[in-house]
Amino acid sequence: MSVNENRTAAIAEIRSVIEDWASAMREKDAGRVLAHGTEDCLVYSLAPPLKETAAGAEGLEQWFSTWKGPLGYRFQELEISAGGDVAFATALTHLSGEKLDGEKAALWFRQTLGLRRTERGWKIAHQHESVPFYMDGSFKAAIDLEPTSDVDWQAPSPPPMAGVIAYLGVQDANATAEFYGRAFGAKEVDRKYAEDGKRLIHCHLTINGGALMLSDPFPEYGCPWKPQEGVVLHLVVDDADFWWKRAVAAGAEVTMPLAVAFWGDYYGQLRDPFGVLWAIVAPVKKN
What are the helix (H) ranges across 54-132? Predict the structure, then answer.
């Protein structure tokens, strides 16, 4: 068999391996996904940390468990190059699905796979995923791009956010953001991790149409944690009872029962598990 014929046969075999690997991703079959990798497969994924070795199925199964039903996972512009016992493949990959909370997710990202020929056939030895960042100073991941997207680099940056925005230093920003999602319907806009891959340098949430920022303490940079004092975050809403019951059910502590206050508003205060006071407020409806 000629060199070109060997290369063509190898590329066909590699394509079959990648297609079955993608099929296993769609079916959320962690064991089958990992069976296509080497034992020391190095993974540079979209999620923290900066790098990891895909040594077990536990982390992958945990991630799969956050999705309802099968995943959408497909390639566009899959290109494969092979020579001898090594090969690499590049593609634009589309991930889509429905999270357990009903949120629909879909994004394109760039993917490179490095493969080695082993006694058990071609195996994925390196997996690299990435998304570009907007270079306007926001460092926002460009997850809204599609293969046909054109980026206007001369377009103006988004306008500044209005009003005064609370920026909280909390002991566990990840846990705080998750709690605010359950208690106050918070939606995440952006997050940035520190070099340790655990603490958050920045987390941008929206709650009731407004922005709230969070970060972990960084005592090594002169930003230690301090208890929250003298601050109350106000949520002015239409249905105070709904917001109140949801927050209490999530674990917020009642510090002032919801009632008609002497100044005329329907008002109550709660303390979240991280020591932050919240007020839920609604105008009293007049008959």
Answer: 58-64
CA angle 14–15–19, rounded 5-degree value = 120
DSSP conformational letter for 286: P
In whole angstroms, what is the distance from residue 142 CA to residue 154 CA?
16
Domains of the chain: which residue ranges?
3-130, 166-283
**Helix (H, G, I), strand (E, B), or coil: what is residue 15?**
helix
CATH fold of 166-283 reads 2,3-Dihydroxybiphenyl 1,2-Dioxygenase; domain 1 (3.10.180)
Q: What pLDDT digit, counting tens, does each position of 161-197 carry? A: 778 899 999 999 999 999 999 999 999 988 888 877 7
Q: Do 181 and 247 meet the contact criterion of CB atoms below 8 Å apart?
A: no
Which numeric CATH code is attached to 3-130?
Answer: 3.10.450.50
Counted residue by residue, the chain has a size of 287
